[in-house]
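Quick question, first post here. What does this chain look like in 3D?
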Amino acid sequence: MHIAPHPRDHVPPREMADKLVQSYMQTFGSIYRVLHIPKSLEEYELYWSNPETSSQAHVVAKLLLVMAIGTVFQPRQEAFVLRSSALQWIYVAQTWITTPFDKCRLTIEVIQLQCLLIFARLVHDVDGDLLRLSAASLLQTAMQIGLHIDAEINDFPNISPQEIQLRRNLWAMVLEIVVQMSVDSGGIPLIRASDYDFKSPVNMDDMVFKNNMDEFVSFIQRPDSLLTRLQIAAFVNDFRYYSTTLLAQSRCRGTYFQKKRGAAMGLGAAGSSVGGVVLPIALNELLHTSVGFGWAVRIIGFIVLALLLPASMFIKSRLPPRKSSLFMPSAFKQPEYAILIAVCFFATLAMYPLLFYFPSSGIANGMRTKLAFYLACHTNASLIAVTALFGFFSGVIISGTSISLASVPKDPRNIGTYMGMGFGITAFSTLIVPPVSGEMVSRYDSFTQVSIFSGVSCLVGAALIIRRRCMLDMGSFRLGEAFWCDAERVQCLNDTSKVF
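> Answer (accepted):
Ran it through. Tokens below.
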């Protein structure tokens, strides 16, 4: 027994339905190939042949969603009048999809319904903030019935060419929705290119479909563009690519300067820290307005894009391209490089717990939430004006890591490899910090242990950097091997100290 009205109870008169369906077919239907047009029109005519006895509720639900989308393409005044009906059709279709009636959930028809429902909610701005969750459900359902596995490549039995094309079109629409929701929400895409096996849908109208697969013309533009957009969305929305950006900056600056390379990179790092102050504050302020998360992230992205475009347009490589190795084992035979890697590891291990838990500690001690947010920004600002002790040292660590790594190789062309290996090893410390720090805070219900852990790591890094400084025997502190104490070296150390 049904616990809700049948979807056919909400279908408008035939004349209105024909108009809205035609609007959909001429617009959305020709671009987003969710439905197989000839089959859908046959089902539509079959429904109207006897609407009262039609038992195919999924056909009626699709009709309601198609009409809801079609209303936005009517003249403005008429579209405004039809909006209330469109919203009702959306809610009826959504109720039918989600309620546990006697129907199979894992079918092509249900995937089509979910796609149409997301499009209808998108064009009518219904629960826009929750569309990403609906896209996740759609993706999981599509993968559960195997749409991400190409039927032709994997020799699925008893599947006609039309069904293969329908599956490909439908999977392409699922990916379109996933990419769109990722861009709108500012989140990482829910799937990677390596997670599916997918051939291009054929570039052929549904009306002229033939059974011979050999006559199909390969459709190129949409899949290629789709894969590129999927990768762009993953890159832009993944905060972990920040280290890649730092690496690119350091490599570009490093190859342009043979002398004073450290000073040049230090100035560049200082400029980056200005962004580390301004951008988080701007994002935080935008998040507390009616702009919303999606547009807040986009606005910050536009600001960064405006800053990057001039450099990207006018910069050119000073050095000719060459083949370089991704890994140079010989670099680790240099004592100063090996010690520097250890220094960077422990310095990062010391810095990140405080960056993570400064705001939490402030809130725990009665500080307002919004004010606690600015603690992290203050730490970056200190690279320019020394306003806090931790900020001073964290600024040195953030900017000094890339500068130090770039100063080791004698050949500037190896800077990228040296820095890549260094950041790759240092990255493990960022994976260690969150679980270890979180466990200490949870177990002891205090931030003291995290502070001790950070302090000890910092001391270890400091001891190692002093050792490296002694090995390099450069600059004002000409300690040389005097650090390793025999009688002659102690005398050398005393002589050096007299100079100062």
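The CA atoms of residues 69 and 120 lie 5 Å apart.
Residues 210-223, 378-388, 474-500 have pLDDT under 50 and may be disordered.
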